[in-house]
Specification:
Helices cover 22% and strands 29% of the residues. The chain is built from 4 helices and 10 strands. An 8-stranded mixed β-sheet has the order 5-4-3-6-1-7-10-9, with helices on both faces. Strands 2-8 form a two-stranded antiparallel sheet. It starts with a strand and ends in a 9-residue tail after the last strand. The mean pLDDT is 94. This is Dihydrofolate reductase. Keywords: NADP, One-carbon metabolism, Oxidoreductase.
């Protein structure tokens, strides 16, 4: 059991696209700063493909990589065999650090599986419809309610405008505990 809130953090185009060919189909320094501010000092859980696309451990955060391939030994991260094991380890790590959140940071399949566990979703909506091969699942408005929406100024190096949204699990909608 973990007392830490399970938080999904994702950037998605208006049409749900989150990736193309193992990368993000945009350049958004404004969102990267937002992502860092949310996750710094807290455990991050990700799938193998996301780990490989980042190419290194995210500094200042315990990195946990989900893969069933036991030959994968992610340098600078812990390897686990399932999302449940990753969330359990992240919760234990969060408790040892004295923080109350763990972050699920991708990719597509991990996000789909994590929706049933998530307490909060921080979604950056990229103000464009883009082509891609990986999408974020639709947020069920019966399970989650939008509690915040902020449109920051577009940074001069941003390829698109963004809207930062926060969704919270509705009371009584049945978050799973590990």
């Amino acid at each position: 059991m973990t007392a830490a809130r399970i938080v999904i953090v994702v950037a998605a185009a208006r049409n749900g696209v989150i990736g193309r060919d193992g990368d993000m189909p945009w350049r958004l320094p404004t969102d990267l700063k937002h992502f860092k501010a949310l996750t710094l000092g807290r455990p991050v859980v990700m799938g193998r493909k996301t780990w490989q696309s980042i190419g290194r451990p995210l500094p200042g955060r315990p990195n946990i990589v989900i893969t069933r391939d036991e030959t994968v030994a992610p340098d600078g991260a812990e390897r686990v065999g399932s999302l449940e094991d990753g969330l359990k380890l992240a919760g234990e790590t969060a408790a040892s650090l004295g923080v109350d959140e763990v972050f699920v940071i991708g990719g597509g399949q991990v996000y789909r599986d994590a929706m049933s566990f998530a307490d909060i979703i921080h979604m950056t909506v990229v103000e464009a419809d883009l082509d891609g091969d990986t999408v974020f699942p639709a947020i069920d408005a019966l399970m989650f309610e939008k509690v915040s929406e902020v449109s920051p100024p577009r940074g001069e190096k941003d390829s698109h405008g963004v809207v930062f949204t926060t969704w919270q699990r509705r009371t009584g909608s049945g978050s799973l505990e590990l």
